[in-house]
Write a structure and sequence with these properties.
alpha+beta; 6 helices; 7 strands; 13% strand; binds adenosine-5'-diphosphate
Length: 331
């Protein structure tokens, strides 16, 4: 598909260049022939005005003049044909490379889309396969009792929750990609962060984690719902990847004309080698370093990055493995 588009685009470029080159040649040919005709015509007029017997070679000169006009026109035609052949060959080569350059971003985005679809399908299939094999095994079991059936349903429910989470996350990714700024308004950042802290309290309490907020009152232009989403992702991660009885700090900082939100934790941190990839879709850092297995699909930070991009904000992290992480969002 891509190669045929490349070929079509190259041919369109060649067509445009050849139309220009041939039109230029026709104009040049007509202008040159008219000029030559006019120049030699003047000479003939001078000769014809000479007294009788004073121009014995007039007929001969007329013949030479016509011959000259024909030869010059023939010469010009040949040169213009060569010129157009050279233009055709060079425009073929140039058009191919030009079309390749034009199509490169489209090719890259198609590749990313394909990779994403493959990753998403893989992630969606895993819980489905688990459910299917569990059901098959249990159906074959003639001694399956109500207790076993309930356990099966419980396990299936867990897999369904995973599927639900995944499809919601994928939908969010697709939605924020549309770059829709319709819901943008002046929003109070501290209020958004307060509501985020409140929502995360239950999760934090389970691990006895204290979330401290240092929240200045600052208004920014944005979409309150997606900003809430962004900070929930960062705070959820901070809690997920922190040990029990630790502390998380959320600050709003004013720097020059910019407003920065910083969320720092005392958790497992991220290895320097993994830092460049954590905002990629489906990327999960080496979570085995965490004592308890942490659930997730590696989609949170890519959604957070998309929301930040939507707000023309920059998102980044400073982290040391084993020491903790500090995520920044700069508006
Ligand atoms: P996940 O669902 O795995 O949490 P994310 O996209 O939210 O997906 O994060 C990507 C990866 O970045 C995580 O798997 C984790 O390894 C790392 N990460 C994110 N936030 C933190 C944090 N606060 N502390 C340590 N590692 C983190």
């Amino acid at each position: 598909m891509f190669n045929s588009t490349l070929l079509k685009l190259s041919l369109i470029y060649v067509g445009i260049l050849m139309i220009l080159s041939i039109s230029f040649s026709v104009v040049l040919y007509n202008v040159s022939s008219t000029e030559l005709d006019r120049g030699l015509g003047n000479q003939a007029r001078v000769l014809r005005n000479m007294p009788p017997n004073g121009n014995p070679f007039l007929d001969e000169l007329e013949r030479i003049r016509d011959q000259q006009i024909n030869e010059s026109a023939q010469n010009l035609r040949t040169k213009l044909i060569y010129f157009n052949i050279i233009i055709f060959i060079s425009s073929l080569i140039a058009s191919y490379f030009l079309a390749k350059i034009t199509l490169r971003p489209i090719e890259e985005s198609m590749e990313a889309q394909n990779r994403f679809t493959a990753d998403a399908s893989h992630e969606l299939r895993t819980p489905l396969t688990a459910m299917k094999s569990e059901i098959e095994v249990n159906l074959r079991d003639e001694n399956l009792n109500i207790k076993g059936a309930k356990e099966l349903l419980k396990s299936n429910l867990e897999e369904i929750s995973k599927l639900e989470y995944l499809s919601t996350a994928l939908l969010k990714l697709a939605k924020t990609e549309k770059n829709d700024k319709k819901a943008f308004e002046q929003v109070e950042l501290s209020e958004i962060l307060e509501s985020v802290i409140e929502k995360a309290t239950k999760l934090a309490d389970k691990k006895n984690i204290v979330v401290k907020g240092k929240l200045k009152k600052i208004k920014i232009h944005g979409d309150s719902a997606s900003l809430t989403e962004l900070f929930i992702i960062l705070l959820d991660n901070a809690i997920k990847y922190s040990p029990k009885n630790s502390q998380i700090k959320i600050e709003i900082l004013k720097k020059d004309k910019h407003t920065e939100v910083a969320i720092s934790d005392q958790g497992i941190g991220i290895k320097a080698s993994e830092l460049p990839y954590i905002f990629n879709r489906f990327y999960r850092a080496d979570v085995s370093r965490s004592k308890e297995k942490v659930d997730g699909y590696g989609l949170g930070l890519s959604i957070a990055k998309q929301i930040a991009d939507l707000h023309d904000a920059k998102i980044w992290v400073e982290s040391k493995s084993g020491k903790g992480s500090k995520f920044f969002v700069k508006f």
